[in-house]
Amino acid sequence: MTRAAEILDQVWEALGGAAALSANVRCDGVGDLPSAFAVSDLAAASVGVAALSVGELIAARHGAVPAIAVDRRCASMWFWISIRPQGWSLPPIWDVTAGDYPTADGWIKLHTNVPNHRSAALGVLGVAASKEAVAKVVRGWQANLLEQVIVDRGGCAAAMRSLDEWCVHPQGSAVAREPLFHVEAGSAGRTCDWAIAAERPLAGVRVLDLTRVLAGPIATRFLAGFGAEVLRIDPPVWEEPAIVPEVTLGKRCARLDLGNDRDRETFTSLLRSADVLVHGHRPGALARRGFDSARMQELSPGLVEVSLDAYGWSGPWAARRGFDSLVQMSSGIAAEGMRKNGSARPTPLPVQALDHATGYFMAAAAVRGLTQRLATGLGSVVRTSLARIGALLIDQSREDRTSVALAPETIDDLDEAQEATAWGPARRLKPPVAIAGSPMRWALPASPLGAAPARWVSRP
């Protein structure tokens, strides 16, 4: 059995899927992203799990799981970026002050892409937004102390820890004890009126998307690729310009302020007729707005709720802000890459693999929830975290093996059709998976945040 197949089986079992169904997934192609970890195996497995969940849903209505073929190389490429602008460019991904800095006793990563996170870090350091100025001051700090002070100020930072240090850290220990997915039964639902047509199996399914960079948007992008109506909701001032053209494919994007009574009423109305809610809010954030899981299950009987956080749902860091790159620093991934590559600085994964894999796993959880609702009438509540998926990758990468570099991208890797995005024409990579009779395609091009009204358009 290949490592990708082992990961697929482990995750599918953790989601409650029947083990025999995984035989319907075939992984084609060769090649590995350059990493000390099994990133391409994770890419192929995560895409395969998500596709298998769609195949299982099709079987629930049509009697058999269709053949599923994952393109390992293409899945690896989708783990980086799928869009290829034609005559225009994406903005830089990273803020000028974001990055890895040597400290007095190690390394620290500062994540400053969000304005208030940047203000918090610069406020602690007492410098302007200059990489040189930041580096000079950071050298005088101990890594763990600076991490804590920035986090206490409301910022995002992660000291680099080794795999062994993370294992004995209170948060690392807590994550290791968590399951891959926390799964709970939800409320009894309304009659399911989804067509589950083999060609567009998620047509008629309404997905409310309250996610941001990057795992959650990848989950809902996958759902849109098989016909789901995805309505993404962002607060009034939120922007992520470098990522939006990549992740809003197939979606409509609106804005609501959940601190505003009128917008909260609009959200409540949307939630009442949603089938799936995907969100990445930290524990307690939605509850403070009056939308804890129990209340959402009451408003939308049978709701499939899927959520994630960065550092896990237990332990002292359960409510800590975090991103993929920070979790890689905290959990030993960047340090192990540095050690194995003989590098002088942290060596993270070549892509935001925790985000991407978690996104596909969340999509699988959502579709499995729909399948179970068909069978039992009950909704579900599923939670996972970047840190727990990171632990899965670490566990699956302990044995070294010979790797083959991915073949370079060619024009044949791109879809023939142009995508008329709001920023200009673009082409996409071909889909990373093929489900027999159910092509993965998106009905809507990528669009800016807030470009659509906050309302459903299907099933009036």
Characterization of the model:
- By secondary structure, this protein is an alpha/beta fold.
- Helices cover 37% and strands 16% of the residues.
- It is built from 16 helices and 16 strands.
- It has helices at residues 3-14, 39-62, 72-78, 115-125, 131-138, 143-152, 163-168, 170-177, 215-225, 244-247, 261-272, 293-299, 324-330, 333-341, 353-376, 386-395, and strands at residues 25-28, 68-71, 83-85, 99-102, 107-110, 157-159, 182-188, 206-210, 229-234, 251-255, 276-279, 304-309, 378-385, 419-421, 424-428, 433-435.
- The protein has a seven-stranded mixed beta sheet, sandwiched between helices. Strands 1-2-16 form a three-stranded mixed beta sheet. Strands 3-15-14 form a three-stranded antiparallel beta sheet, with no helix packed on it.
- Helix 10 (244-247) links the parallel strand 9 (229-234) and strand 10.
- Helix 15 (353-376) crosses helix 16 (386-395).
Short synopsis of the structure:
With 460 residues, the chain is α/β, with parallel strands linked by helices. It has 16 helices and 16 strands.
